[in-house]
Amino acid sequence: MNPGGPTDHTLAQGLLAGGMMDRPLMIADVLVFASDVYGDGTITSRRVEGDLHTTTYADTRKRTEQLAKALKDLGIQPGERVATMAWNGYRHVELYYAVSGIGSVCHTINPRLSAEQIEFIVAHANDKALFVDLTFVPLIEKLVHRLPKELKIVILCGREHMPDTSIEGALCYEELLAAQDPGFAWPRFSENTASSLCYTSGTTGNPKGALYSHRSTVLHALMCAVAFQNALFPGSSVMPVVPMFHVNAWGSPYTAPLTGSNLVMPGPNLDGASLFSLMDEVGVYSAWGVPTVWLGLLEAIKAAGRPPMSFKDVVVGGSAAPRTMIEQFDDMGVSLCHAWGMTEMSPIGTQANLTPPLSELPKDQRFDLKVKQGRRTFGVEMKIVGEDGTRQPHDGQAMGELYVRGNSVIKEYYNNPEATAENFDDQGWFRTGDVATIDPLGFLQITDRAKDLIKSGGEWISSIDMESAALAHPQVANCAVIAIAHEKWDERPLLVVVPEPGETVDKDSVLALLQNSFAKWQLPDDVVSVEALPLTATGKVSKLTLRQQFQHHYADNN
Ligand code: AMP
Known about the structure:
Layout lengths: L26 H11 L4 E5 L5 E5 H17 L7 E5 L4 H12 L3 E4 L6 H11 L1 E6 L4 H7 L8 E4 L15 E2 H6 L15 E7 L7 E6 H14 L9 E4 L6 H4 L1 H8 L2 E4 L6 H11 L3 E4 L1 H14 L8 E4 L6 H9 L3 E7 L6 E4 L4 H4 L3 H8 L4 E2 L3 E6 L14 E7 L10 H7 L6 E9 L5 E6 L4 E3 L2 E3 L1 H8 L5 E11 L3 E10 L7 H9 L10 E4 L13 H7 L3 H5 L1
Parallel strand pairs: 1-11, 3-4, 3-5, 4-8, 5-6, 6-7, 10-11, 10-12, 12-13, 13-14, 24-25
Antiparallel strand pairs: 1-2, 8-9, 14-15, 15-16, 17-18, 18-19, 19-20, 21-22, 23-24
Helix pairs in contact: 1-2, 1-9, 2-3, 7-9, 10-11
The chain binds adenosine monophosphate.
């Protein structure tokens, strides 16, 4: 077993060493660069306190230097973990850079995890301090007796907003900063030093940690800057709706400063109407997030009768964007680009921007490509492996489990040898758990999570394809297709739909629509309506919860 592949950097015999400096890739250098070159680039944040706050990269650098000194005064040592529980905002950006910059590890905690999971990861990470937004103070008050006694808790606000809290010894963030002057010499150390820690919100078992390094983070940022040139350029405004507590907001707090793009941080209000008004006010050019968020924004756009001003680009990841969503955005002149990735990949692995010849294809053929998850970013390699363990051709037909390797892919889970042993093959490729095809142009298409595929009478049915087709029905606002145990066929698909407001979904007309793209045996045996779909901590539809809810559906209805 060789997780992560060869790591021997010694020069093979006979090779000539390059004559170049070996300067380590450091996260702090990204912000120093941004402040030197794009110093007037901005971070605009909707604050938890309610107002809109704007700062520059030059000022962010100064405050990050103050924070670095404050962290040292708090006794945070290199290598120690410092946790955050916060929305997207400028203070969270400061923490990203200051914590990693002093050689400590920024551990972002997803507040939507259960109390048990939060307790587990704070203990597993052995966090020394926790920086929390005002929103999460009540959550921490309930949980604090289950957290280590020595954990230092800092509330992300000024003295005037400090809550009357039962958290003993809670510190005020702005006071910590005010006690320090700017000016700090960032230490230099190996680029392979750990920088940040994210736990995957596994639907079963305890969360597993991906421990990124300075090198992997900076390379990922450079790779994304190249892959998303259409969105990331000096002066463009990029709004990560994907939270900074979920895979570092897809790396945007690094890629935006690196490319001179402005960051727009939406804070706590992620509903369609709030996003619309923020985007309109600030002039967001490119917005990044999971499909559920864009369903909300599309509703707000419908209500307003126009898209937000300056809005031209949307990057969708986390789950598949349905074709109807791609079409709706395209119709209003907004280009939707799929990105696929995983926490274990920092997270971006592919992107579906079309190169010039492809973008000139007829609309239908363009959308055929855009529904796919896209082509690999530099530094990521992919292979698909069939049920018999053989590597499958990239012909767009052969389906297999997707494995990846690359510069920003984990080589092991943090302190979890069991999970590491289960998730790498003997050549060091990481097993994604996704099932996919890859076409001759290199476009990856995720057909399912391995555990979400439906196997009916020995044949596979892709839930993602069927959901995309069902969403084209005018009465269907959202939907999920899940596998339900079946006596005769092992599993049969069930379509769970959320009707458009004030509508009821007519089962026969949905099935008639699906018949256009699916064989009869693939069609769901039933269509049930629900008010809302259950979501996971990362805002994806929780098929596990749905499967549990409807597990006896076909047995009961036989
Ligand atoms: P996470 O580690 O929480 O970011 O989840 C990673 C998983 O989300 C992947 O393994 C995929 O199953 C799914 N995923 C991410 N991006 C996409 C996408 N663009 N389309 C379909 N599934 C996606």
